[in-house]
From TrEMBL:
SUPFAM superfamilies: Tryptophan synthase beta subunit-like PLP-dependent enzymes. Gene3D superfamilies: 3.40.50.1100. NCBIfam families: diampropi_NH3ly, PRK08206.1. Residues 41-373 form the Tryptophan synthase beta chain-like PALP domain. GO terms for molecular function: diaminopropionate ammonia-lyase activity; pyridoxal phosphate binding. The keyword Lyase applies. Its cofactor is pyridoxal 5'-phosphate. InterPro entries: DiNH2opropionate_NH3_lyase (IPR010081), TrpB-like_PALP (IPR001926), TrpB-like_PALP_sf (IPR036052). Pfam families: PALP (PF00291). Keywords: Lyase, Pyridoxal phosphate. It comes from Bosea lathyri. This is Diaminopropionate ammonia-lyase.
Amino acid sequence: MFLLNKHADYRTALDPVDADTLGSAGADAIERHLAQRVDHAATPLHGLPGLASEFGIGTLHVKDEGHRLGLGSFKALGGGYAVTRLVLEAAEAQLGRSLGDDAFLLPEVRALVASMTFACATDGNHGRSVAQGAQLVGAKAAIIVHGGVSEERIAAIARFGAQIVRVAGTYDDSIVEAARMAGENGWIVVSDTSWPGYERVPGLVMQGYTAIVREALKQLLSAPTHVFVQAGVGGIAAAVAAHLALVLGEDRPVFTVVDPARAACIFEAARAGRPIKVAHGEPTVMAMLECYEPSPIAWRVLSRVADAFMTVEDADAVAMMNRLARPTGGDPAIVGGESGVAGLAGLMRAMADPAIAGALGLDGSSRVLVINTEGATDPVQYEALVGLTPDAVRSVTPQARV
């Protein structure tokens, strides 16, 4: 399914709060935070000349978040960053002075943080980031997981010392339960989705994602003409689209939001013209995108700066996982997770349909950027879908499978 943005707010100015959070000042803030992280390095940007030729476009680049901060996902930039910001703000309020980004190393700050517990609901990756951030600053973490979260992803969260709370239902159900438990226990909720009266923290999470765009624009020789980014509740897509619009202005690329067909909450919001909750049906293999209700602040942004919305099938994602794992035409091998390749699957679907390609202005001169938002965050599932282990894919050279 495909829709051009027909919302009344399309191409209007962003809300001032969103512009401040997701613009250059916001990117500066996450950049300062990352400068304090000994485990930080810019993630690679891969050129895919073989796939670009197959699609009939000028260039194709993939920003590979499978290498981010040891967590294998772009989510490493969001929850953990929000935890550190909240800790510093609490410490500044208690100590009565301004603190730098490395202040959580100070004994007086560590003493304060030891009594704090950060909680969130997760499909896997966001919870891992919150748990890592809590461990980094010396706080506790309570991570609420629903029945669809795999044991491998739960174990990856638990290794950061987090308390794991299992609940029935879907991701959306776990959000409600996380808020309830936090209220009962005095925990601080770090959610990547918003609701009425709760916007600042998910705004900080989205602000963390602007680091991806800033890095990519530095790594590219020319700004992209087209960008495809996947959506769960919409945070990553909104952060990327907003930052591109704010820093590039009229030269911003055509931006397409990609949803799994089985959990297309952003697509359905675009069709309805407002955030709606979609029915829970058959689970999608793109588990990290299996969200049934958009984040209101993400929709507020996307209604203004997204140009189009589309869906992809599970088979499309699996096909792209396998194509990246078995490169041709001089492309590098890339470990792309089920959800990580959804944006690239969207490009594949668009180029297979002349009407969609024409509507987006995709042709032989197009410079396309996509984001591999995760690597093999569930290695067992990855091997089952690709037929190769992640390590086996990493050992592949372009020449080996041409």
